[in-house]
């Protein structure tokens, strides 16, 4: 089991209906969510509704269905608190997005990374300090590095989008 396979989905809440399917909403949200997570910006359905033009262009009037796609009916992202709207800009939430999206190469390109490996290395920077030495070593080995130092150097050298 790899480091990107360890996260359980957040608990379920109430469901709503939408003119988009949950899968369509998730496809629009995946790169947007990862961009927010990499920038360490907590995010919510209202922000996605305002920032992703496809929602307004297709006649979506409210962010409820987007919230469902972020939550229990979609990715299952964790929020700041169960009663809060903002999703955490966390490695666990990034992992849930990656678990849903089957084509990591195209997702990486949409976010602005050359390869899926570069995207994963950028995401690992979020979590690396909190991993114990065994987890760091296991993750480095899983990703094909000979040592943790080589792994750290690779994370530092990843070229990605400017997120400021």
Structural topology:
Elements: H1 22-38, H2 45-51, H3 53-57, H4 64-70, H5 91-100, H6 104-111, H7 116-127, H8 133-142, H9 148-157
Give the averaged pLDDT, no decimals.
Answer: 85
Distance between the termini: 33 Å
Major sheet details:
none
Share of helix, binned:
40-55%
Element order: H for helix, E for strand = HHHHHHHHH
By DSSP, the count of extended strands is 0
Number of helices: 9
User: Which overall shape is indicated by the principal axes computed on the Cα atoms?
Assistant: elongated
The whole-angstrom Rg is 16 Å
Low-confidence stretches: 13-17
* Structural class assignment: mainly alpha
Strand content: under 5%
Defining traits:
164 residues, mainly alpha, 9 helices, elongated
What is shown here, in short?
Helix content is about 50%, strand content about 0%.
Structural summary, described in words:
The protein is mainly α and 164 residues long. It has helices at 22-38, 45-51, 53-57, 64-70, 91-100, 104-111, 116-127, 133-142, 148-157. Mean pLDDT is 85; it is low at 13-17.
